[in-house]
Give the backbone structure.
Amino acid sequence: EELPLYTNHDAIVGEVRITSLTTKRTEHSGIKVQLIGQIELASERGSPHDFVSLVRELAPPGDVASAAQKPLPFEFRNVEMQYDSYRGMQVRCRYLLRVTVTGKGMVADTKKDAPFWVRNYDVPPEEAPPIKMEVGIEECLHIEFEYDKARYHLKDVVVGKIYFLLVRIKLKHMEVEIRRRETTGAGSSAHNESETIAKYEIMDGAPVRGENIPIRLYLSPYDLTPTYKDVHNKFSVRYFLNLVLVDEEDRRYFKQQEIVLYRKADEPQMPAGSS
C-alpha cells in the first residue's frame, strides 16, 4: 500500500473532483472535506476516538452536475499532527481526508475516505551511560551484561558484551530478542500484547567461566517504530531487549531490559507497515 506522507505542521493541499452518475438534475445541500485524526482500539471497534477534526466547505448547496464541472480545491495549513500513524495488534492511529456530499436521497457512495500517513522526527537525545546489569541463579550461574546505551534510533546498532562470571549449568545457546509491548487502557483496565520482532543468536555451545561474548545487533532490517508513551491517553508502545539462555534440558532463563527507540530526521521517508 502506498500513501501520501506528511509530518507535523505540514500543509495538506489538494482538490476534489465530483462525478455525477445520472443525467437527471440532482440537488445537494453542500460538499465538504474533513481532515480527521483518530485512534481505533480493537476492543472498541466501530467507535474511533477523534483527536483532529477540521472541516473545509467545498461548495454551497446547488446542482451536482454544476459541482462536477470543475475541481474543488481545498487547503489545510499548519495542521497539528503530533502523533505518528501506527498499525498495531490491538490499536491503530490513522489520518484521513473525508469528502461528503449531503442532500436528500444521497446514498453511502457520496462519502469517500482518502487515508494518508504521518511520520514525525525526534531530536537525538543526550548521550547516556551504558546499561550494566548482573543476573544469576545462586551457586549455578552468574553473568554480567552491558549494552552501550539505552536510546537508539531506528537504524542504529546495539553493541554490548556478556561476561560469564560463574557457569555451573550446561548451557547450549543464548540469544537476544527484540520485543514490542503494546499497551491499551490504563490502571486495572490496561491490556498488554507482546510480540517478538527479532531473534539474534549470540552463542551456540557451552560457555566457560571468564568468557566474554560480544553483541552487535543491527536494528535497520526490522519493522520497528519509535517508542510511544501515552498517545492521547489511549495506548503506549515500548521495546525491550530480552536476553534468553537455554540449557541442555531446554529450560529457558530470561533477563529483560527496556530500550527507547526514536526516529532521526535523516532517515528515509518511506511509508511502511507499522512505522
Observations:
- The first helix runs from residue 64 to 67.
- The chain has a mean pLDDT of 88.
